């Protein structure tokens, strides 16, 4: 068999974006409710919420959107940190904010919410997860206000992961929160993958990722944001001429290649600066800037605030996309 050297390394840019998706468990809850009920899920900033029905049925509704019905095995993902309603049926009045209702706290990050009433029973598993990483947020920004994964279409992975998650949340054991977070990681990634698989997109960031040549260049930028990128070096990664790459990138992605590079770098910078994890000087050097001053100017131009302010602001979620 003859081995053929390809002009670029075969990669799966969409798969790589999913691979770098990182979530951290903030809070989990189990709901056991009878009869009519509804609760307000408050906005959680740069977080992802998920709801899984294990018994009965429930509805999820984001303001301005239609209610989404969930039956046993279904999962709803609310990817943009937006407040939303969780209901037994559309139109049911809310009992109030979920974090202000009486509930049993089994740990600081896990509770059981019970509601007694007359009517059908529903049981749910819910979670709130924080998201880290520039590529992660770029990926989440593609998603609709609610991602609904039909349990029948989720297949064996969905049933198996839900069974393990339910087991961990129902029977508290040492290390249970760490296991639950990893399982939730899988649920979120698989849900996003299921949504991506159903899309027929040829433009924008997702369209570029699916393009073998543009995807190679974008993946290279995400792997090494501090490399001294130019249109020419990106074109080399894509195995295209500079002019052809520049025109195609702008046409598909909707912005010039170097503008995209700057945006990715600022997302990375915001992650590194958040919670004081790195100094402005360290981040500037990591991202290839000649001086702290030049990096600060670029950061403020792109984000609207200084990097020093970001470093002092707990929970900063990065620049807008």
Brief descriptors of the model:
321 residues, activator, 4-stranded antiparallel sheet, disordered N terminus, disordered C terminus, alpha+beta, 7-stranded mixed sheet, 43% helix, 12 helices, 11 strands
SSE-based structural type:
alpha+beta
Mean pLDDT: 81
Spatial order of strands in the largest sheet: 8-9-1-10-3-6-11
Helix content: 40-55%
Q: Strand portion, in percent?
A: 15-25%
What's the β-strand tally? 11
Kindly provide the radius of gyration, computed on alpha-carbon positions and rounded to a whole number of angstroms.
22 Å
Instruction: Profile the largest sheet.
Output: 7 strands, mixed
What is the element string, with H for helices and E for strands? HEEEEEEEEEEHEHHHHHHHHHH
InterPro entries: AraC_lig, AraC_XylS_family_regulators, Homeodomain-like_sf, HTH-like, HTH_AraC, HTH_AraC-typ_CS, Tscrpt_reg_AraC-type_HTH
Pfam family, one: HTH_18
Organism: Cellulomonas humilata
Keywords: Activator, DNA-binding, Transcription, Transcription regulation
Write a structural description.
This is AraC-like DNA-binding protein. Keywords: Activator, DNA-binding, Transcription, Transcription regulation. Residues 215-313 form the HTH araC/xylS-type domain. With 321 residues, the protein is α+β, with helices and mostly antiparallel strands. The protein is built from twelve helices and eleven strands. The strands form two sheets. The chain has a seven-stranded mixed β-sheet with strand order 8-9-1-10-3-6-11. The chain has a four-stranded antiparallel β-sheet with strand order 2-7-4-5, with no helix packed on it. Strand 8 (104-107) and strand 9 form a beta hairpin. Helix 7 (231-238) packs across helix 8 and helix 9 packs across helix 11 (292-303).
